[in-house]
Design brief:
Layout lengths: L1 E2 H8 L3 H9 L7 E2 L6 E3 L4 H12 L4 H7 L3 H17 L31
Antiparallel strand pairs: 1-3, 2-3
Length: 119
């Protein structure tokens, strides 16, 4: 289990961002300590947070992400549409380098620490 500070450093986001995601019901910690109020996250949650951050990088709002996060078929459909839009606009995949990330369905999940430092 990871405390919120540890987990946020892995993904290069702030603890405030994780608290916000919890407050809006987008991404809940694996466990909350009822005595201290500390939030704990598990390595099993890496995939879900990767997906949220990738969708956010694509320009989706948090309410939009919340609506589709538990529907993999919608995410795949959105990824294909976004990739097609980029290909039609002449943007080449740069394999997550620079401002345009690799948007193929198989690479939606980013690895920890490959994230820009923006929220």
């Amino acid at each position: 289990m990871y405390q919120i500070g540890q987990f946020s450093k892995i993904f290069r986001i702030t603890p405030k961002t994780l608290r916000h995601y919890d407050e809006i019901g987008l991404f809940k910690p694996a466990r909350n300590d009822s005595f201290t109020g500390y939030r704990y996250y598990s390595s099993e949650q890496f995939s879900q947070l990767n997906t949220i951050l990738a969708l956010k990088d694509m320009g989706l709002s948090l309410p939009e992400i919340k609506r589709i996060i538990n529907h993999p078929e919608r995410i795949e459909q959105l990824m294909r549409k976004k990739q097609s839009e980029l290909e039609n606009s002449g943007v080449k995949n740069q394999n997550a380098e620079g401002p345009h990330r690799d948007l193929s369905v198989t690479t939606i999940q980013r690895q920890p620490n490959e994230r820009n430092c923006t929220n």
